[in-house]
Design a protein that fits this description.
Restriction Endonuclease; alpha+beta; globular; 2 domains; 35% helix
């Protein structure tokens, strides 16, 4: 007699979870969630189950979810439910602390993220994965540092500049006010003892050209302040603005042409970054419209 297959609910955990014995690959997956915070099913499939059908990853994720090692949300696209996004639950966190010596804090508020910010965070992570893949294929380049906007240096601090690694404040002489510099992410590339600093800004498609011009001016003042030098041994930096499409990237670039600080910016889009090497290929546009690569 064949045992009847138990139906597991999609939006809650089953009363009787499927049996599971943790394998090394499961712990690798949990550790990846500790590193990136959120990962979609397709991202996990490529990272942990390379060369295999995504259905196998889905089955394993389902078991880990119903056994409370991981939790999940779903991306939203209008009224359509999108891809599942996974993050550590407390039992999974305990496993990587014990098995891998993980030192990060357990993120209690992962489930409370708003849909628009979750989509934005996944886009940042997609960029990071593409960057790490590109770096792994270059012998002379290393990824020295990566900080995301939510990485904390002191979770108990009350002021943002004391709480987050990449939050900074500078004085605006025109308005005589203190303004914040808070990129989506920051990374440092190293090669032969030299470093290059990059700030990542992922465009949500909701900011006007006026807002982008203000952001450029903020980064220009930040450049003059030299406060950025605490992140790397550099005298300058680049801001990588990634739009959701080539059309949006080109529209932003043309609308802000000639603005103060545009020389610090490079423009591209996530569609191109998915298809081409983001370091070696000429997929970045300067404010003047010149096509360049990050690594020559």
């Amino acid at each position: 007699m064949v045992a009847q297959k138990t139906h597991l609910p999609k939006f809650s955990r089953g009363e009787t979870p499927p049996k599971i014995i943790l394998q090394k690959r499961d712990i690798d997956l949990l550790e990846a969630l500790g590193k990136y915070r959120y990962l979609t099913t397709s991202q996990i499939s490529k990272l942990i189950f390379p060369g295999k059908h995504e259905q196998g990853a889905r089955r394993r994720l389902t078991k880990l979810y119903h056994n409370k090692y991981i939790d999940r949300l779903f991306l939203e696209s209008g009224f359509v439910l999108g891809e599942a996004v996974y993050f550590l639950d407390r039992d999974g966190y305990k496993v990587i602390v014990q098995e891998r010596g993980y030192e990060g804090n357990f993120q209690k508020k992962n489930r409370q993220v708003k849909p628009i910010f979750l989509r934005h965070t996944i886009d940042e992570i997609e960029f990071r994965l593409a960057l790490e893949k590109s770096v792994s294929e270059l012998e002379h380049i290393e990824l020295v540092k990566w900080y995301s906007e939510y990485d904390m240096k002191d979770s108990h601090a009350t002021k943002r500049k004391d709480k987050y690694f990449i939050y900074d404040e500078i004085f605006d002489p025109n308005t005589t006010k203190v303004i914040s510099v808070y990129p989506d992410s920051l990374f440092v590339l190293g090669s032969s003892g030299r470093e290059a600093l990059y700030f990542l800004e992922v465009d949500r498609g909701t900011e006007s050209s006026k807002k982008i011009i203000e952001k450029m001016r903020t980064y220009y003042l930040y450049f003059l302040s030299n406060k950025f030098s605490k992140y790397a041994n550099v005298k300058r930096f680049k801001v990588l603005l990634v739009a959701h499409s080539h059309r949006r990237a080109e529209s932003l670039r043309s609308n802000v042409q000639g603005s103060l600080g545009i020389e610090n910016f490079l423009f591209s889009n996530k569609e191109t970054i998915k298809k081409k090497d983001l370091l070696k290929k000429k997929i970045w546009f300067t404010g003047d419209g010149d096509r360049i690569s990050i690594v020559k």
